[in-house]
C-alpha cells in the first residue's frame, strides 16, 4: 500500500490520530493539534515508552481539561518494547504532571485506562466505513500500529498517510552510553526506532511514502533561550504559551533537548517551512550491536521508498509559527 500525500488545505479538515509516548514535547504537540487550522484531532494513544504510564495518563487527563477538549479520547497502548527507555528520561511526564498551570485540574483516569489499540482499531474502522482515511502522527515507537494491523490487516485501508518522528539517517543517533549499557549503545540508533526495531521493520516493509522526520532535521530545532523567552512574554497574556513555557523550562539543564515532535507536527499545516523530502528506501538493523540503525540498504531489495525530511527551508518561520499557534487561550 502506498500512502497518499498532500498538504492540508483550508477547505478540508484533516482527521488525525496522535500516537506518542508522553514526553514534554509531545504534550506541546497535543496542544498545537487542537489549534492548528484544518486539523481534526480524533484521538490520542499514549505509549509507555519515554514515560511512566500512570503519571503520563494523569498528565494527559489534566491537559485535556486545561484545553477544554475532554471530547478527544485518550487511551493507553498495551504495547511492549524491546529496549526500555532509561529511567532518567521517563520521568519528564512526572514533572509535566506537576506544572503550576495544570495543578487546578484533577486527573480522571479509569483503572485500567482505556485500551489504546482498541481505540486505534475503532478509529481506523470508522475511517474506512465513512470513506475518510486518517493521518497517523507518530512521535514514538511504531509498535501499537503493528499490533493493530497484525490482528486485522484490512484496517490499513483506513490510513491516508503516516508521519513519523524517528530514526537518524546521516547523523548520529541518540543512544547515550551514560544512560544505556555500552554493550548496546551504538552510535547510529534513535530511541523511537531502538525501542522496537522489529515493529519499525514491519512498517517500513509494508508502507511507502511515510513522511519521516529523523534527528537530521530535529537537531536544528533546539529549545533555545530566545524561544523560551518569547513563550514567557506571551505567557503573560496567553495561557497556552504559559504552559509551554513552564514545560520547556523543565529541560533547561538538558542541552540535548530538541523540538523533536513539534518538528514533525508542524509539517501538517506548514509544509512550506521545510525543504522537500528525499525519497529513499530504508532498512533497519534488527539484531546485534547496531540494532535500531535505520539506513539505506547496501543493495536494491524489496524496501519501499520513504519521504525523509532533512532540513527546514525557514527555521525562523518554524519557531514563529509555533509561537503563533501558542498565542491563544484555546477558547
TrEMBL record:
GO terms for biological process: purine nucleoside catabolic process. It comes from the Bacteria. The keyword Hydrolase applies. Pfam families: IU_nuc_hydro (PF01156). GO terms for molecular function: purine nucleosidase activity. GO terms for cellular component: cytosol. InterPro entries: Inosine/uridine_hydrolase_dom (IPR001910), IUNH (IPR023186), Ribo_hydro-like (IPR036452). Keywords: Glycosidase, Hydrolase. This is Inosine/uridine-preferring nucleoside hydrolase domain-containing protein. It comes from Terriglobus albidus.
Amino acid at each position: 500500500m502506498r500512502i497518499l500525500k498532500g498538504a492540508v488545505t483550508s477547505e478540508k479538515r484533516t482527521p488525525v490520530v496522535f500516537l506518542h509516548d508522553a514526553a514534554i514535547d509531545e504534550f506541546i504537540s497535543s496542544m498545537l493539534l487542537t489549534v492548528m487550522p484544518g486539523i481534526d484531532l480524533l484521538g490520542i494513544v499514549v505509549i509507555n515508552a519515554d514515560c511512566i504510564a500512570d503519571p503520563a495518563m494523569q498528565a494527559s487527563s489534566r491537559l485535556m481539561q486545561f484545553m477544554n477538549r475532554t471530547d478527544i479520547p485518550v487511551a493507553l497502548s498495551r504495547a511492549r518494547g524491546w529496549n526500555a527507555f532509561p529511567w532518567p528520561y521517563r520521568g519528564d511526564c512526572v514533572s509535566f504532571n506537576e506544572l503550576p498551570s495544570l495543578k487546578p485540574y484533577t486527573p480522571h483516569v479509569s483503572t485500567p485506562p482505556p485500551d489504546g489499540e482498541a481505540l486505534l482499531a475503532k478509529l481506523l474502522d470508522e475511517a474506512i466505513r465513512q470513506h475518510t482515511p486518517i493521518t497517523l502522527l507518530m512521535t514514538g515507537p511504531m509498535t501499537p500500529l503493528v499490533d493493530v494491523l497484525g490482528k486485522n490487516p484490512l484496517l490499513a485501508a483506513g490510513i491516508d498517510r503516516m508521519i513519523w518522528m524517528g530514526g537518524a539517517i546521516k547523523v548520529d543517533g541518540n543512544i547515550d552510553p551514560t544512560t544505556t549499557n555500552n554493550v548496546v549503545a551504538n552510535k547510529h540508533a534513535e530511541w523511537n526506532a531502538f525501542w522496537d526495531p522489529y515493529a519499525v521493520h514491519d512498517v517500513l516493509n509494508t508502507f511507502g511514502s511515510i513522511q519521516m522526520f529523523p534527528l537530521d532535521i530535529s537537531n536544528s530545532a533546539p529549545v533555545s533561550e530566545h524561544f523560551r523567552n518569547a513563550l514567557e512574554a506571551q505567557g503573560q497574556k496567553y495561557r497556552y504559551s504559559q504552559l509551554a513555557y513552564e514545560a520547556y523550562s523543565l529541560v533547561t539543564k538538558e542541552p540535548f533537548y530538541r523540538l523533536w515532535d513539534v518538528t514533525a507536527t508542524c509539517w501538517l499545516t506548514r509544509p512550506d517551512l521545510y525543504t522537500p523530502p528525499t525519497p529513499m528506501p530504508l532498512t533497519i538493523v534488527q539484531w546485534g550491536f547496531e540494532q535500531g540503525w535505520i539506513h539505506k540498504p547496501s543493495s536494491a531489495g524489496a524496501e519501499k521508498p520513504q519521504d525523509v525530511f532533512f532540513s527546514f527551508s525557514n527555521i525562523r518561520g518554524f519557531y514563529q509559527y509555533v509561537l503563533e499557534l501558542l498565542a491563544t487561550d484555546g477558547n
